[in-house]
Specification:
GO terms for molecular function: glutathione transferase activity. It holds the Pfam family GST_N. Its EC number is 2.5.1.18. The protein has 208 residues and is of the alpha/beta class. Helices cover 52% and strands 9% of the residues. Strands 4-3-1-2-5 form a five-stranded mixed β-sheet, covered by helices on one side. The chain is globular, with a radius of gyration of 17 Å.
Length: 208
């Protein structure tokens, strides 16, 4: 298997799961600054021109959530449950994409990525709107986590990797989660996992 990635938000999920499961993948770095994701070769495996992408034999997968589930299933891991918890995992993956990380990711881009890439200052109106929704959706997440170690059932699942993906950047991206003690407690538990703290490979194999 080959996992094409960059050190950005969505690849973080897939790389963390691959490391956590010790999946037999070759990590292949894609340099977005050099537009390696827009080359004909890369567009041939993902016409969207985005990372991550997983190649597993004749199977090519885009989208980090699908890649996490595929890696978990291939490893026989309960990160992708085999029972009715699948529905709950799907619910949280959908909720996250449409609500929490949608707006936390906007703050990640405005406050962290734009200045780093020289794209100008954060858009104040976008930041204000995103902060409002992060607080609203953060309240939902905080309430759900009360009395729970993980999002679904009593064990870690891909839902935890997905919903928490912006939290390692919360301070630098000014994501307003400091008033949500249950979120902070839950993320501290995830930070006990070496693969979560350090998801990206230290040695980069270059994309062809």
């Amino acid at each position: 298997m080959k996992l094409f990635y960059s050190e950005t938000l969505n690849p973080r999920k897939a790389c963390a799961v691959a490391k956590h499961l010790n999946s037999p993948v070759e990590f292949v770095h894609v340099d977005l600054a050099k537009l390696e994701n827009r080359t004909p070769q890369f567009l041939g495996i993902n016409p969207n021109g985005k990372v991550p992408v997983l190649q597993d034999g004749e199977t090519t997968l885009w989208e980090a959530n699908a890649i996490m589930c595929h890696l978990a299933r291939a490893a026989g891991s309960d990160l992708w449950p085999k029972d009715q918890r699948q529905i709950e995992v799907m619910r949280w993956l959908s909720w996250d994409a449409n609500h929490f990380t949608r707006f936390a990711g906007s703050l990640y881009f405005q406050n962290l990525v734009k200045p780093q890439l020289g794209f100008g200052e954060p858009d104040a109106a976008i930041v204000q709107e995103a902060e409002k929704w992060v607080r609203q959706h953060g309240s939902v997440l905080n309430n759900h986590l009360r009395g729970r170690d993980y999002l679904v059932g009593d064990t870690l699942t891909v839902a935890d990797f997905a919903v928490a993906v912006t939290l390692p950047y919360a301070d630098r991206a000014h994501i307003p989660v400091g008033d949500f003690p249950e979120i902070l407690r839950w993320h501290a538990r995830l930070n006990e996992l070496p693969a979560w703290r350090d998801p990206f490979p230290h040695n980069r194999a270059k994309a062809a």
